[in-house]
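Researcher: Here's the sequence for the chain we discussed earlier.
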Amino acid sequence: MKPLRDAQLGAFTFFASALPHDVCGSNGLPLTPNSIKILGRFQILKTITHPRLCQYVDISRGKHERLIVVAEHYSRNVGDFRQGQTVLQIAYEVLEGLEFMNKHGLVHRALSPNTVLMDCKGNVKLAKFGLYHMTDHGADVDFPIG
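Model: Thanks. This is the structure I predict for it:
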């Protein structure tokens, strides 16, 4: 993990879907809770670094399948860009992040002005890009992603 010099940390929380009351699979072995599977996939996201992506820092598992994700965060988003920046520059930086994600088999699925953040130097940083990956394409949660 790279040092997060000027970044703030942000957190978001969600619930993993609960397992059915029958907690054993057809082979008789206990099923792994969805929150544990998400924790494992998150470990991969912590290793992914790129100048256009917000760095994932940590994840915590609470009661009732609640997960709390901590990541690099900036308070300004693409709607707050400064004079001197062009839409073309911002679009190029977004595409740099998306290209890197694509090369690593990741899909954003929640790209919006609120997830295209701007660091203190005005550079684009994509946020919340790993939710689709860590939830197994949304299979481990009870809400739609993207």
